[in-house]
């Protein structure tokens, strides 16, 4: 049995472990291509599978939020008008 649940505007595939095994390739491909997390239910509990890109994004977010003052700098940057930003061509990498 497979169901798609919408929570907070996001889509998550819910599937039991037997059906997950039968549809492994298709389910993983869908997770990779469409960044749809999968909740696999078993008799002992559930496991959530996410794409590598989503996983890396979560780690990056945690890293940024754990650096003192970094979250505030990101918010400040988001609130800075474009006309106050340095042109990309002037940035030395």
Explain what the structure shows.
The protein folds into 2 domains: 2-50, YefM-like domain (YefM-like fold, 3-Layer(aba) Sandwich); 53-81, no CATH class. The protein is built from 4 helices and 4 strands; from the N terminus they run ββααββαα. Helix content is 44%, strand content 25%. A hairpin with a 2-residue loop joins strand 1 (2-7) and strand 2.
Percentage of helical residues?
A: 40-55%
Q: What is the CATH topology assignment of the largest domain?
A: YefM-like fold
Low-confidence stretches: none
Shape: elongated
Question: Describe the biggest sheet?
Answer: 4 strands, mixed
- CATH homologous superfamily annotation of the largest domain: YefM-like domain
Please tell me the CATH architecture of the largest domain by its name: 3-Layer(aba) Sandwich
Order of helices and strands: EEHHEEHH
Task: Name some characteristics of this structure.
YefM-like fold; alpha+beta; 25% strand; single chain; 4 strands; 93 residues
How is the topology of this model organized?
Blueprint: E1 2-7, E2 10-16, H1 17-22, H2 24-34, E3 38-42, E4 45-49, H3 52-66, H4 70-78
Parallel strand pairs: 2-3
Antiparallel strand pairs: 1-2, 3-4
């Amino acid at each position: 049995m497979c169901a798609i649940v919408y929570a907070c505007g996001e889509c998550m595939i819910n599937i039991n472990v037997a059906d997950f095994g039968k549809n492994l390739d298709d389910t993983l491909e869908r997770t990779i291509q469409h960044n749809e997390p999968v909740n696999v239910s078993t008799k002992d509990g559930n496991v959530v599978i996410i794409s590598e890109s989503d996983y890396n994004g979560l780690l990056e977010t945690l890293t940024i939020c754990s650096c003192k003052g970094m979250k505030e700098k990101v918010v400040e940057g988001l609130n800075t008008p474009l006309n106050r930003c340095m042109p990309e061509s002037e940035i030395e990498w």
